[in-house]
Amino acid sequence: MRVGILTGGGDCPGLNAVIRAVTLALLHADAATEVWGIQRGFWGLMADRLQPLTAASVRDLLDEGGTVLGTHNRADPFAWQGHDASGQALDCLTRHGIDALVVIGGDGSLTIGDRFSRLGVPMVGVPKTIDNDIEHNERSFGFDSAVAVVAEALTRLKTTAQSHQRVMVLETMGRNAGWIALEGGLAGGADAILIPEQPFDLDRLTARLQARVQEQGHALVCVAEGATLSDGTQFWQTGSGVARLGGIGQALTDALAQRLPGTEVRGTLLGHLQRGGAPTAFDRVLSTRFGVAAAQALRDGAFGHTIALQGDRCVRVPLSAVSGRQRRVPLDDPLSDCARVLGALD
Fold first, then answer.
1. Which CATH class name applies to 2-141+279-322?
2. What CATH class does 147-274 carry?
3. Choosing from 76, 107, 131, 191, which is the catalytic residue?
4. Closest Cα partner for 181 from 269, 260, 110, 251?
5. 34-38 and 50-53: which strand pairing?
6. Where is the Phosphofructokinase domain (predicted)?
C-alpha cells in the first residue's frame, strides 16, 4: 500500500505527532508500505509536491509544533483561483500510485476530503482544530495546548491587574465556537467569559465588572474573537483584503474605559500564540491515538470515515456526518453551567 498524508487548514500543536503516529503504525504493521507526505495540504496535490516519509524522518516529531509538511488554509481544489482543479489533484494521486489518503484537518479540510471520497478516493480523516468545533468529536488535538496558553496568559494578566487595580481584557481565538474562551477562561479564573453562542449585553457586563472591581480591586475578561453583542454586532478586521472576525478585544477595551471612569482598562490579543509551540502532554497522547486509529482504519479499508473521540474511545464517523458542520458550545453544557454558577457567563 502507498499512503499519502496531508495537513490542511491552520497549523496547531499535535499535527507532527499525528504524522509520526500514522507513519510508524503503518510501517510497523507492514514494512512494504510506503508513506508519502503531501506538502502544504491540498495545494501539494495540485502542484505535485510530495516527499517520502520514513520511520527515521518522523520518529522525533512527537513534541514539535507546527507541521513538517506545511499547510495552506485556502487551497480548495474544487474552487482554486476561480476554477475546479480537482481533476489535477486526482491526476497527481494516480501518477504517484497513491492507494489511500489521510487528511488531517478541520471542518473545511474534512469537507474537501468528503468530496474527494465521493469521487472514489480511498480516504480517512483525522480531526484537527484548536477551536474544538468538529461535529461528533469530543476533543480535538491542539485544543488543550491552546487552552493552556490562554490560562497562563490570564494568570499573568491577573498579577498586573491586581498590582494596578485594572480591568484586563484578553481576546482569544474562536470565530463561531467559544470552547477556547470558555475552558481557558475557567482555567484562568476570568470574571467574565464572552463566547459567540451567548450574546452579551454591554450594560450588564459593565455592572458585573464594576462589582468585581469594588469587591477585589480588579477584573479579568476573556472574550472569543467571534463574541456577539446582544444587538447582533460583531467585530471584523479587513487586513490583506480578507474580512476576518476579530478586534472585539480592543473595541471592548475602549468601550469599558468609557464606562468605568477611574478604572484603567487594558487589552491583550493572543492571536497566533495560541497556535504555536509544542503540544501539551495530553495533545501528544491524543494525536498519537488519532494517528494509530487512522492507520488501523486504512488497513481495515474503512474509507470515507474520520476518526473521532467519543467517551474516551477513538471511533469512526462518516465524513458526510461532519462535512460542513460545526460543534458549538451548548448553553446547557456542563462547562457553561459551571461558568454561569460562578457568575462569569450570562
1. alpha beta
2. alpha beta
3. 131
4. 269
5. antiparallel
6. 2-298
**pLDDT digit string (tens) for 140-167?**
999 999 999 999 999 999 999 999 999 9
What three-state secondary structure class fits 302? coil
Cell numbers placing 272: 497566533
Query: With the CA atoms of 184, 187, 193 and 198 taken in that order, what torsion angle do they form, in degrees rounded to the nearest 10?
Result: 70
Q: Cβ distance 322 to 127 under 8 Å?
A: yes
CA distance readout (Å), 336 to 42, 168, 178, 179, 342? 36, 22, 10, 10, 10
pTM of the predicted structure, to 2 decimals: 0.95
Taking the domains of the chain in order of start, what are their residue ranges? 2-141+279-322, 147-274
Residue 300 catalytic? no
Contact predicate 182/195, CB 8 Å: yes
User: Please, are residues 58 and 295 in contact by the beta-carbon 8 Å criterion?
Assistant: no
